[in-house]
Every structure is written in C-alpha cells, then in structure tokens.
Amino acid sequence: MQAHNLIKYGYRIRTRSGVTVDNLVIQGRDESEAQQKLLRMYPGCTVIETRHIRPAVNTNICSSFEDVVDVLAADH
Question: Where does the pLDDT of residue 2 fall: very low under 50, low under 70, confident under 90, or very high at 90 and above?
C-alpha cells in the first residue's frame, strides 16, 4: 500500500466510557477502511462525526533549485 493512495478522514467519537474525542485523523484507502482502523483503536466507540480531510494545496511549491534561489534572493 502506497501513501499517496491514502485519504485522510477526521472523526469525532464517544468512547465506550463516555469521553468525547475530537479531531482524530485516520488514513485509509476509503472511508470504510479508515473506520475499521478507528474501531480497532477504540473498540466500542460511537462515531459522532466523520469528515473527509482534503490535502492542503500549496501554490508556492518550488520545482527546482533555481526556483528556490529565486525565492531566497527576492527576500533580500
């Protein structure tokens, strides 16, 4: 399984002892796999909320050494 095929899912759960846990992030090939991982880590929990976390898009990604030098030189 390669990392670039995984999707991040965010969860809010209630543990079997009643504690609410926010912002759990689990990767999976799909939502079903991510939820299976969640239930293995927190057996007996109740899923309150599920959300798909989209990857951040960085428009300032430098593609070459010359681009990095240009960015650094522009700061001076």
Answer: very low
